[in-house]
Amino acid sequence: MTADVASTVYPPEHARDAQAIEAGRLLFAGACDFVAGAPTADALPEDTLPEVAFAGRSNVGKSSLLNALTGRTTLARVSNTPGRTRQLNFFSLGQRLMLVDLPGYGYAEAPKHEIARWSELMRLYLKGRASLRRTLLLVDARHGLKPIDDPLMTMLDESAVSFQLVLTKSDKLSPKGLAQRLETIATALKSHVAAHPAIHATSAQGGTGIAELRAELAALASASQPC
Ligand SMILES: Nc1nc2c(ncn2[C@@H]2O[C@H](COP(=O)(O)OP(=O)(O)O)[C@@H](O)[C@H]2O)c(=O)[nH]1
Ligand SMILES: [Mg+2]
Fold first, then answer.
1. Which of 50, 68, 120, 212 has the smallest CB count inside 10 Å?
2. Substitution candidate for ligand 1 out of 64, 73, 149, 205 with most atoms within 8 A of CB
């Protein structure tokens, strides 16, 4: 079991123990309620819980990952409702941790003024949110980091918001391909001051790495002071 756990967290010394995995399971087995959707900065809900934001280019597998983590389709269903895809959606996990689904970027068909509007909303949120403990930056394991991810990483560096790489669709790579991808990304992250050193490799399809990511988030919920 330890070997399995270590294989989805890189470098492996960041893997968590069985007790932490159980804490993650328990946290994500509880209620997960839609709290608010914010199309503009003045519609953001009050900071009441520690928050973890989920970001990444569209089609990276964010909805699938949120479904796999929570074991239910509530989040993706709400976030994919027309009119809600370009806003920040807030979900309370057992009143202990707020999961924040950020709009996907790099959506080619979106009009320029729309892109400008949601970039500004993300910037205001990421820079000004006192309860934001970490942003998970989702990256497709097949493609790795791309120039399209740079503006967000720069914004997070400048805002001193800790961010952590989560690879999605790890089932699409061979173990060797995945190991190489993790090494390349770890090297690229060295130039980002706000980057967390541990990378998670996940597959929403096969469930790989999901328990470990739950454990990581549960540790954040417990470590945080009340807001
Ligand atoms: N093979 C594989 N495909 C995935 C996985 N997660 C998502 N996908 C596929 O990637 C596409 C985009 O997924 P979605 O969750 O809607 O991405 P979003 O736009 O970031 O919310 C869909 O076709 C999913 O079926 C995964 O873990 N493995
Ligand atoms: Mg989605």
1. 120
2. 64
